[in-house]
TrEMBL record:
<feature type="transmembrane region" description="Helical">
    <location>
        <begin position="105"/>
        <end position="122"/>
    </location>
</feature>
<keyword id="KW-0812">Transmembrane</keyword>
<feature type="transmembrane region" description="Helical">
    <location>
        <begin position="134"/>
        <end position="155"/>
    </location>
</feature>
<protein>
    <recommendedName>
        <fullName>TRAP C4-dicarboxylate transport system permease DctM subunit domain-containing protein</fullName>
    </recommendedName>
</protein>
<feature type="transmembrane region" description="Helical">
    <location>
        <begin position="346"/>
        <end position="362"/>
    </location>
</feature>
<feature type="transmembrane region" description="Helical">
    <location>
        <begin position="621"/>
        <end position="640"/>
    </location>
</feature>
<feature type="domain" description="TRAP C4-dicarboxylate transport system permease DctM subunit">
    <location>
        <begin position="121"/>
        <end position="553"/>
    </location>
</feature>
<feature type="transmembrane region" description="Helical">
    <location>
        <begin position="45"/>
        <end position="62"/>
    </location>
</feature>
<feature type="transmembrane region" description="Helical">
    <location>
        <begin position="594"/>
        <end position="615"/>
    </location>
</feature>
<feature type="transmembrane region" description="Helical">
    <location>
        <begin position="368"/>
        <end position="385"/>
    </location>
</feature>
<feature type="transmembrane region" description="Helical">
    <location>
        <begin position="20"/>
        <end position="39"/>
    </location>
</feature>
<feature type="transmembrane region" description="Helical">
    <location>
        <begin position="494"/>
        <end position="517"/>
    </location>
</feature>
<keyword id="KW-0813">Transport</keyword>
<keyword id="KW-1133">Transmembrane helix</keyword>
<feature type="transmembrane region" description="Helical">
    <location>
        <begin position="437"/>
        <end position="458"/>
    </location>
</feature>
<feature type="transmembrane region" description="Helical">
    <location>
        <begin position="405"/>
        <end position="425"/>
    </location>
</feature>
<dbReference type="InterPro" id="IPR011853">
    <property type="entry name" value="TRAP_DctM-Dct_fused"/>
</dbReference>
Length: 652
């Protein structure tokens, strides 16, 4: 994927003005103000307008090739930009005719030609903004309906002619302008603006300083700071790589100062940044697409994600604390840390704005307008207080950053829509679930493992959002129908496993980005990140097997399952790191350390995983298995440590 151009002259004003227009039109559409009803009265017309404002910008902002000129816009890019504007403008102008006359089934010749042009431009824009792998996937998938009847059994579908395929992609509500783009237009725009505004007003600096003030002095403090700050920053940015490069430049050097190795420090930052994208209240764009797929309020998705994300961070915190205790690492000196009082004095309003956002999300249930109110309040307070006031340059920088983000994400969502549309028009989205159930022999656990592996593999070649959308159409129905599993739990399961490629070698993009900051070996960093983030491999199985962990069920069951999960996560994380609070090192005796640690890992899993349902063992049997493994292991570790401790105290 080519890097973004450093636009010169008047070119930077294109994304800025397009972002401003998109923001105004979105407010008019979401609040139903009616000032711009010419393009916001009909949803399909508004969606065409969103694409018309942003997708053409890709040809200006991203060069055609990685070695292309990063400052000058080539003549052929200008032609593609104008062609995209004209093509999208045609659909904006004819949006009501498309709807009233059913053009998605039988369109005039001109509309058919324009559909082919839009199809080709979308694939090329995806190639520039999303990279070759994603472009190849959506490009091939988009052509699939034309050959669906000659494909082998499981992936055979109803065929369509080239012209039928093109008009379906361009004018139906199931393809380019399907659920992914609809979710963006209805929900995501406001939250992305809020995230950019937070970063540009100094929100990132505030949360990092707050984390250092609270945790910098404790053992392994900078690593714990990384958890806190990256969790909050990732929630704002929705991007693992951006999160690593933003917070990592501060947390990784601080971790190095207290004695943490380069690759370990980079692994901590990679894990913390990955978890941040799964952390409410502002999760990545995928969560909003999920809300549209499930026809569920976004607040329900965010609430369900609270416990799993906290369990992941608990496992990471326990491992870091164990590492610090094991290696006797101290925190940073108090005098080098920012003042908590001064930090809160200068940045209290960031917390206040978050409180407003959460109140509007969970109590007022106003997901669509909550981020706009929060952004407006943030900018007003920011201009009143003297600490981070914006000048004209900051305003233009805000719209430039938001424009780049919008253009990239809208293009990728439009491209993924081609894949969804291909499955829809051929009927494959309705039959593939039955084929998967048949392949798995109707076994829910086998289906889950298939889902985990598929999500991980697709997460390597696609963005998380793209991988999630494909699997939400193809795999989720199989898990829900064949496995009888909770729909929300299934969709979160797919999201979590799609994220794991960021910390799992051989890809581990988040870990490799952190390795660049730390100056460590990429593969070694990836392995450290995989071990540190190991809890995240188990957590999706916990909540998909018992949805009480995502707050689906009675409070008594939720409390019991949560308590079991907490104990299980602490045991697993401690065993992986080789140190348990209250007992000490689990690695004192070389011969016995691995049996002890393995028993604690398996016992912790048996304690956390609910019995019954898809599991071959019931609740009682799982609990008995856990006790049979953990009690002897804990007793043996305690005896070894206490015995060695007493022997050290004996006088010579």
């Amino acid at each position: 994927m080519s890097g973004v151009r450093d636009l010169q002259g008047l070119w930077p004003w294109l994304p800025r003005l397009a972002t401003l227009v998109l923001t105004v039109l979105t407010l008019d559409y979401v609040l139903n103000l009616g000032y711009f009803s010419l393009v916001t009265a009909v949803e399909s017309q508004f969606l065409y307008t969103v694409v018309a404002l942003m997708v053409p910008l890709v040809f200006i902002m991203w060069p055609a090739f990685s070695g292309g000129d990063r400052r000058r816009v080539a003549w052929y890019d200008v032609l593609l930009f104008l062609l995209a504007v004209g093509t999208c403008g045609y659909f904006v102008y004819n949006a009501e005719r498309i709807l009233d006359n059913g053009w998605e089934y039988a369109a005039p010749q001109t509309a058919t030609v324009m559909s082919f042009v839009l199809w080709g431009l979308t694939v090329e824009a995806v190639r520039r903004a999303g990279g070759w792998p994603l472009a190849l996937i959506v490009g091939v998938a988009g052509c699939y309906p034309m050959v669906a009847d000659i494909m082998p059994g499981p992936i055979q579908g109803f065929p369509s002619s080239p012209s039928q395929t093109a008009i379906y992609h361009a004018m139906s509500r199931e393809s380019v302008f399907g659920i992914p783009l609809q979710a963006f237009a209805n929900l995501v725009i406001g939250f992305l603006l809020f995230g950019v505004a937070l970063q540009k007003t100094g929100g990132g600096k505030f949360f990092i300083n707050l984390a250092f003030a609270l945790l910098g002095h404790v053992r392994g403090g900078p690593a714990k700071v990384s958890i806190f700050s990256s969790g909050l920053m990732g929630s704002m940015s929705g991007s693992v790589i951006t999160n690593v490069l933003t917070t990592g430049v501060l947390t990784i050097p601080a971790m190095r100062r207290v004695g943490i190795g380069r690759s370990y420090a980079a692994g901590v930052e990679a894990c913390a940044s990955t978890g941040g994208v799964l952390m409410p209240p502002v999760m990545g764009a995928t969560a909003f697409v999920m809300a549209s797929f499930l026809n569920t309020p976004y607040s329900t998705i965010a609430l369900a994600a609270v416990v799993p994300s906290l369990l992941f961070y608990l496992g990471l915190f326990v491992q870091i604390d164990a590492y610090a205790a094991k290696h006797e690492l101290k925190g940073l000196p108090e005098e080098e840390l920012p003042s908590l009082k001064q930090t809160l004095k200068e940045g209290w309003y960031f917390i206040f704005v978050f409180v407003l956002l959460i109140w509007m999300l969970f109590w007022l249930r106003r997901e669509a307008i909550a981020p706009f109110y929060a952004t407006a309040l943030l900018l007003v307070i920011n201009q009143i207080l003297p600490y981070q006031r914006w000048g004209w340059r900051d305003v233009t920088d805000f719209f430039s950053s938001a424009g780049k983000l919008f253009a990239e994400l809208i293009t990728i969502l439009a491209g993924v829509g081609l894949l969804v549309g291909a499955l829809s028009v051929t009927g494959l989205s309705g039959t593939i679930a039955n084929d998967l159930i048949y392949i798995a022999g109707g076994n829910p656990l086998v289906l889950l493992l298939m889902g985990a592996v598929t999500s991980f593999i697709l997460g390597i070649g696609m963005t998380v959002t793209a991988a999630y959308i494909f699997l939400a159409v193809a795999l989720a129905p199989a898990l829900i129908q064949g496995g009888g599993m909770n729909p929300l739990a299934v969709h979160l399961f797919i999201l979590y496993w799609g994220m794991l490629s960021y910390i799992t070698p051989p890809v581990a993009l988040g870990a490799f980005a952190a390795a660049t900051v730390a100056g460590s070996k990429p593969m070694e960093t990836g392995l450290n990140a995989m071990r540190l983030g190991s809890v995240i491999y188990f957590v999706p199985f916990l909540f998909v097997l018992n949805p009480a962990l995502i707050l689906q069920g009675g409070w008594q069951e939720i409390a019991l399952v949560l308590a079991q999960a907490l104990v299980g996560v602490v045991l697993i994380a401690s065993a992986i790191q080789g140190y348990l609070v209250g007992i000490g090192s689990l690695s004192t005796q070389r011969l016995l350390q691995w049996p002890i640690r393995l028993m604690l890992i398996v016992g912790g899993l048996a304690f956390a995983v609910p019995g019954g349902g898809a599991m071959p063992l019931g609740h009682g049997a799982m609990f008995a298995l856990s006790l049979a493994l953990t009690v002897p292991a804990l007793g043996l570790a305690l005896w070894i440590n206490r015995g060695l401790l007493s022997s050290r105290r004996e006088p010579v």
